[in-house]
Amino acid sequence: MEIIEPGGPEVVRFAERDEPAPGPGQVTIRVEYAGLNFVDVLARRGVPGYFTGWPFVPGMEVGGTIHALGEGVDTFAAGDRVVAFTVDGTGLADVAVARAGLTVPVPAGLDLATATTIPLTWATAFGLVRVSHAGAGDTVLVTAASGGVGSAIGQLLARQGAARVIGGVRSPAQAATLAAAYTPVTQGEGFVARALQTAGVPGFDVVLESVGGSAFGLMLLLAAHNVGWPLPRGGAGAISQALLLYLQSLGGEIRLGALRRREALQGVGDAVQDGFELMRHRADT
What we know:
Elements: E1 2-3, E2 12-13, E3 26-34, H1 38-45, E4 61-69, E5 81-85, E6 95-99, E7 103-105, H2 112-115, H3 118-132, E8 139-142, H4 147-160, E9 164-169, H5 172-175, E10 182-186, H6 191-199, E11 206-208, H7 215-223, H8 236-249, H9 261-284
Parallel strand pairs: 8-9, 8-11, 9-10
Antiparallel strand pairs: 1-2, 3-4, 3-6, 4-5, 5-7
Helix pairs in contact: 3-4, 3-9, 7-8
Protein backbone atom coordinates (compact mmCIF):
# COMPACT_ATOMS: atom_id res chain seq x y z
CA MET A 1 0.00 0.00 0.00
CA GLU A 2 1.37 3.42 -0.87
CA ILE A 3 0.40 7.06 -0.53
CA ILE A 4 1.08 8.95 -3.75
CA GLU A 5 0.74 12.50 -2.35
CA PRO A 6 -0.78 14.37 0.61
CA GLY A 7 -4.56 14.23 0.71
CA GLY A 8 -7.56 12.14 1.70
CA PRO A 9 -8.26 8.43 1.23
CA GLU A 10 -8.21 8.90 -2.54
CA VAL A 11 -4.38 9.22 -2.50
CA VAL A 12 -3.94 5.68 -1.10
CA ARG A 13 -3.51 2.83 -3.55
CA PHE A 14 -2.17 -0.70 -3.91
CA ALA A 15 0.92 -0.99 -6.06
CA GLU A 16 3.55 -3.49 -7.19
CA ARG A 17 7.18 -2.68 -6.34
CA ASP A 18 10.49 -4.45 -6.56
CA GLU A 19 11.35 -6.32 -3.37
CA PRO A 20 13.47 -4.04 -1.14
CA ALA A 21 17.00 -5.04 -0.15
CA PRO A 22 18.32 -4.30 3.34
CA GLY A 23 21.08 -1.73 3.67
CA PRO A 24 23.88 -1.77 6.25
CA GLY A 25 22.48 -2.31 9.73
CA GLN A 26 19.05 -3.22 8.35
CA VAL A 27 16.92 -6.32 7.92
CA THR A 28 13.99 -7.12 5.70
CA ILE A 29 10.96 -8.83 7.21
CA ARG A 30 8.36 -11.02 5.53
CA VAL A 31 5.29 -9.31 6.99
CA GLU A 32 2.51 -11.37 8.56
CA TYR A 33 0.93 -8.63 10.70
CA ALA A 34 1.17 -4.83 10.52
CA GLY A 35 -0.20 -2.10 12.73
CA LEU A 36 -2.26 0.78 11.34
CA ASN A 37 -1.88 3.84 13.58
CA PHE A 38 -2.75 7.52 13.63
CA VAL A 39 0.80 8.33 12.54
CA ASP A 40 -0.10 6.72 9.21
CA VAL A 41 -3.02 9.12 8.89
CA LEU A 42 -0.65 12.02 9.62
CA ALA A 43 1.66 10.73 6.88
CA ARG A 44 -1.26 10.60 4.43
CA ARG A 45 -2.10 14.20 5.34
CA GLY A 46 1.48 15.22 4.60
CA VAL A 47 2.39 16.37 8.12
CA PRO A 48 6.19 16.97 8.20
CA GLY A 49 8.15 14.32 10.06
CA TYR A 50 5.76 11.47 9.30
CA PHE A 51 6.81 10.61 5.74
CA THR A 52 10.10 10.36 3.84
CA GLY A 53 8.92 11.31 0.36
CA TRP A 54 6.27 10.46 -2.24
CA PRO A 55 5.12 7.87 -2.98
CA PHE A 56 5.35 6.69 0.63
CA VAL A 57 4.63 3.23 2.07
CA PRO A 58 3.11 3.70 5.56
CA GLY A 59 3.18 1.27 8.47
CA MET A 60 5.45 1.69 11.51
CA GLU A 61 5.06 -1.62 13.36
CA VAL A 62 5.25 -5.08 11.87
CA GLY A 63 5.48 -8.71 12.88
CA GLY A 64 6.80 -11.51 10.71
CA THR A 65 9.94 -13.49 9.92
CA ILE A 66 13.43 -12.35 8.96
CA HIS A 67 13.79 -12.43 5.18
CA ALA A 68 17.28 -11.04 4.59
CA LEU A 69 20.11 -9.42 6.55
CA GLY A 70 22.03 -6.28 5.66
CA GLU A 71 25.75 -5.73 6.06
CA GLY A 72 26.92 -5.88 9.66
CA VAL A 73 23.83 -7.62 11.02
CA ASP A 74 24.61 -10.91 12.76
CA THR A 75 22.00 -11.03 15.53
CA PHE A 76 19.28 -12.69 13.44
CA ALA A 77 18.89 -15.56 11.01
CA ALA A 78 16.48 -16.04 8.14
CA GLY A 79 13.15 -17.31 9.44
CA ASP A 80 13.44 -15.82 12.94
CA ARG A 81 10.11 -14.55 14.31
CA VAL A 82 10.46 -10.84 15.03
CA VAL A 83 8.60 -7.59 15.51
CA ALA A 84 9.99 -4.23 14.49
CA PHE A 85 9.41 -0.50 14.82
CA THR A 86 9.71 0.50 11.17
CA VAL A 87 10.41 4.13 11.91
CA ASP A 88 10.66 5.11 8.24
CA GLY A 89 7.46 3.35 7.19
CA THR A 90 7.36 0.38 4.74
CA GLY A 91 5.26 -1.76 7.09
CA LEU A 92 2.10 -2.09 4.97
CA ALA A 93 3.78 -4.31 2.39
CA ASP A 94 4.66 -7.95 1.81
CA VAL A 95 8.28 -7.21 2.73
CA ALA A 96 9.27 -4.37 5.09
CA VAL A 97 12.64 -2.79 5.81
CA ALA A 98 13.64 -2.22 9.45
CA ARG A 99 16.68 -1.15 11.39
CA ALA A 100 18.22 -4.14 13.16
CA GLY A 101 18.44 -2.14 16.38
CA LEU A 102 14.68 -1.62 16.34
CA THR A 103 13.91 -5.26 15.60
CA VAL A 104 13.28 -7.69 18.46
CA PRO A 105 12.88 -11.49 18.50
CA VAL A 106 9.48 -12.72 19.65
CA PRO A 107 9.67 -15.05 22.67
CA ALA A 108 8.40 -18.60 22.28
CA GLY A 109 4.81 -18.93 23.41
CA LEU A 110 3.78 -15.39 22.46
CA ASP A 111 1.61 -15.25 19.38
CA LEU A 112 2.82 -12.97 16.62
CA ALA A 113 -0.42 -10.99 16.29
CA THR A 114 -0.23 -9.91 19.96
CA ALA A 115 3.49 -9.19 19.73
CA THR A 116 2.97 -6.87 16.76
CA THR A 117 1.02 -4.43 18.96
CA ILE A 118 4.12 -3.73 21.05
CA PRO A 119 6.80 -1.92 18.94
CA LEU A 120 4.88 1.35 18.47
CA THR A 121 1.64 1.28 20.46
CA TRP A 122 2.75 -0.41 23.66
CA ALA A 123 6.30 0.95 23.53
CA THR A 124 4.86 4.48 23.35
CA ALA A 125 2.70 3.75 26.39
CA PHE A 126 5.64 2.25 28.31
CA GLY A 127 7.78 5.27 27.49
CA LEU A 128 5.17 7.78 28.64
CA VAL A 129 4.40 5.96 31.89
CA ARG A 130 8.10 5.51 32.62
CA VAL A 131 9.10 9.12 31.95
CA SER A 132 6.17 10.43 34.01
CA HIS A 133 7.15 8.34 37.06
CA ALA A 134 3.45 7.62 37.64
CA GLY A 135 3.13 5.10 40.44
CA ALA A 136 1.25 3.75 43.41
CA GLY A 137 -1.35 6.06 44.87
CA ASP A 138 -1.17 8.66 42.07
CA THR A 139 -4.17 10.34 40.49
CA VAL A 140 -3.51 10.49 36.74
CA LEU A 141 -5.23 12.24 33.85
CA VAL A 142 -4.80 10.85 30.33
CA THR A 143 -6.24 13.48 28.00
CA ALA A 144 -6.72 11.07 25.07
CA ALA A 145 -7.65 7.74 26.64
CA SER A 146 -9.23 5.95 23.69
CA GLY A 147 -7.30 4.20 20.94
CA GLY A 148 -4.39 1.82 21.17
CA VAL A 149 -1.93 3.94 23.15
CA GLY A 150 -4.60 5.22 25.54
CA SER A 151 -5.82 1.70 26.22
CA ALA A 152 -2.27 0.50 26.90
CA ILE A 153 -1.57 3.44 29.23
CA GLY A 154 -4.67 2.66 31.28
CA GLN A 155 -3.61 -0.95 31.75
CA LEU A 156 -0.05 0.01 32.67
CA LEU A 157 -1.15 2.62 35.21
CA ALA A 158 -3.43 0.06 36.85
CA ARG A 159 -0.48 -2.33 37.04
CA GLN A 160 1.63 0.45 38.59
CA GLY A 161 -0.95 0.86 41.34
CA ALA A 162 -2.31 4.28 40.40
CA ALA A 163 -5.15 5.22 42.75
CA ARG A 164 -7.30 6.80 40.07
CA VAL A 165 -6.98 7.12 36.31
CA ILE A 166 -9.21 9.61 34.52
CA GLY A 167 -9.44 9.45 30.74
CA GLY A 168 -10.54 12.13 28.29
CA VAL A 169 -13.00 10.98 25.61
CA ARG A 170 -14.90 12.74 22.86
CA SER A 171 -18.25 11.01 23.34
CA PRO A 172 -20.16 8.57 25.56
CA ALA A 173 -19.75 5.95 22.84
CA GLN A 174 -15.98 6.30 23.12
CA ALA A 175 -16.21 6.04 26.91
CA ALA A 176 -17.76 2.59 26.56
CA THR A 177 -14.60 1.33 24.81
CA LEU A 178 -12.07 2.44 27.45
CA ALA A 179 -9.78 0.15 29.41
CA ALA A 180 -11.34 -0.90 32.72
CA ALA A 181 -8.96 1.28 34.76
CA TYR A 182 -10.40 4.55 33.43
CA THR A 183 -13.02 6.90 34.80
CA PRO A 184 -14.16 8.72 31.61
CA VAL A 185 -14.57 12.49 31.33
CA THR A 186 -15.90 14.08 28.15
CA GLN A 187 -13.59 16.54 26.39
CA GLY A 188 -14.67 19.92 25.04
CA GLU A 189 -15.96 22.97 26.85
CA GLY A 190 -15.80 22.50 30.60
CA PHE A 191 -13.33 19.60 30.38
CA VAL A 192 -10.97 21.09 32.97
CA ALA A 193 -13.74 21.67 35.52
CA ARG A 194 -15.18 18.19 35.00
CA ALA A 195 -11.77 16.55 35.28
CA LEU A 196 -10.95 18.37 38.52
CA GLN A 197 -14.34 17.59 39.99
CA THR A 198 -13.86 13.93 39.17
CA ALA A 199 -10.32 13.86 40.59
CA GLY A 200 -11.18 15.67 43.80
CA VAL A 201 -8.65 17.37 46.07
CA PRO A 202 -5.74 17.95 45.55
CA GLY A 203 -6.01 17.33 41.80
CA PHE A 204 -3.65 15.36 39.57
CA ASP A 205 -0.21 14.02 40.33
CA VAL A 206 0.47 13.25 36.66
CA VAL A 207 -1.05 14.52 33.43
CA LEU A 208 -0.30 12.67 30.19
CA GLU A 209 -1.27 15.17 27.49
CA SER A 210 -1.40 14.28 23.81
CA VAL A 211 -4.21 16.47 22.49
CA GLY A 212 -2.01 19.55 21.98
CA GLY A 213 -3.06 23.02 20.89
CA SER A 214 -4.91 25.12 23.43
CA ALA A 215 -5.33 22.08 25.68
CA PHE A 216 -1.65 22.13 26.63
CA GLY A 217 -1.84 25.18 28.89
CA LEU A 218 -4.94 23.87 30.59
CA MET A 219 -3.23 20.55 31.28
CA LEU A 220 -0.33 22.35 32.94
CA LEU A 221 -2.88 24.12 35.08
CA LEU A 222 -4.43 20.80 36.08
CA ALA A 223 -1.02 19.39 37.01
CA ALA A 224 -0.30 22.46 39.15
CA HIS A 225 -3.74 22.65 40.74
CA ASN A 226 -2.57 21.35 44.11
CA VAL A 227 -0.19 24.31 44.56
CA GLY A 228 -3.12 26.73 44.51
CA TRP A 229 -1.82 28.85 41.65
CA PRO A 230 -4.55 31.15 40.24
CA LEU A 231 -5.63 31.17 36.60
CA PRO A 232 -3.84 34.10 34.86
CA ARG A 233 -5.49 36.36 32.35
CA GLY A 234 -4.64 35.56 28.74
CA GLY A 235 -4.79 32.57 26.43
CA ALA A 236 -3.42 29.10 26.76
CA GLY A 237 0.02 30.23 25.63
CA ALA A 238 0.22 32.66 28.53
CA ILE A 239 -0.90 29.94 30.91
CA SER A 240 1.74 27.55 29.58
CA GLN A 241 4.64 29.98 29.82
CA ALA A 242 3.63 31.38 33.20
CA LEU A 243 3.09 27.97 34.74
CA LEU A 244 6.38 26.64 33.45
CA LEU A 245 8.23 29.54 35.06
CA TYR A 246 6.22 29.30 38.28
CA LEU A 247 6.67 25.56 38.75
CA GLN A 248 10.37 25.84 37.96
CA SER A 249 10.67 28.53 40.64
CA LEU A 250 9.21 26.03 43.13
CA GLY A 251 11.79 23.46 42.13
CA GLY A 252 9.17 21.42 40.31
CA GLU A 253 9.58 19.46 37.14
CA ILE A 254 7.34 18.99 34.13
CA ARG A 255 7.83 16.03 31.83
CA LEU A 256 5.88 16.53 28.64
CA GLY A 257 3.77 13.79 27.11
CA ALA A 258 6.05 13.56 24.07
CA LEU A 259 9.57 12.17 23.78
CA ARG A 260 12.15 13.66 21.50
CA ARG A 261 12.56 11.43 18.47
CA ARG A 262 16.15 10.41 19.29
CA GLU A 263 15.33 9.65 22.94
CA ALA A 264 12.32 7.57 21.91
CA LEU A 265 14.41 5.51 19.47
CA GLN A 266 17.11 4.84 22.06
CA GLY A 267 14.58 3.47 24.52
CA VAL A 268 12.29 1.55 22.20
CA GLY A 269 14.17 -1.75 22.47
CA ASP A 270 13.88 -1.78 26.26
CA ALA A 271 10.21 -0.81 26.05
CA VAL A 272 9.44 -3.65 23.64
CA GLN A 273 11.16 -6.14 25.95
CA ASP A 274 9.09 -4.75 28.86
CA GLY A 275 6.01 -5.32 26.73
CA PHE A 276 6.94 -8.95 26.20
CA GLU A 277 7.44 -9.40 29.95
CA LEU A 278 3.99 -7.97 30.61
CA MET A 279 2.40 -10.23 27.97
CA ARG A 280 4.10 -13.26 29.52
CA HIS A 281 2.86 -12.23 32.97
CA ARG A 282 -0.70 -11.85 31.70
CA ALA A 283 -0.52 -15.28 30.06
CA ASP A 284 0.73 -16.85 33.31
CA THR A 285 -2.02 -15.28 35.43
